[in-house]
Amino acid sequence: MEPRVTDRPEKSRYEILAGEDGAETAGFAEYHLSEGEIAFIHTEIDGRFAGRGLGGLLARGVLDDARARGLRVLPYCPFIRGWIGKHPEYTDLVPEARRARFGL
After folding, report:
1. 59-73 in b/e burial notation, b at 16+ Cβ within 10 A?
2. In whole numbers, what is the pLDDT of the chain averaged over residues?
3. In terms of residue numbers, what domain contains 67?
4. Rounded to an integer, what distance in angstroms lies between the CA atom of residue 2 and that of residue 38?
5. Backbone angles phi, psi at 2, to 5 degrees
6. Residues 53-102: pLDDT tens digits?
7. Is-contact 26 54, C-beta < 8 A?
8. What pLDDT was estimated at residue 1?
9. pTM, entire model
10. CATH code of residue 26
């Protein structure tokens, strides 16, 4: 089964589900949601799933969802910030006045 990203608002995090049955939490991106902004705090992929590209799938999934919801992104998490840096088509999600603070 293909990995999928799902929002778990009760846990303030997105999870990427993978594994043979597609129901195993392979990683997550914690966030804080406030007034039209989503601040990504921490991203983690379980070591058992390392090297499979799931971190990139998770980053793309959370940022695509933020875009669809009209949220501004504050990438405090180094992984999400670095991923945006490598994929400039997502830079517009970060408020222009705050991009320098994140090195974008």
Report:
1. bebbbeebeeeebbb
2. 96
3. 4-102
4. 26
5. -70, 140
6. 999 999 999 999 999 999 999 999 999 999 999 999 999 999 999 999 99
7. yes
8. 73
9. 0.94
10. 3.40.630.30
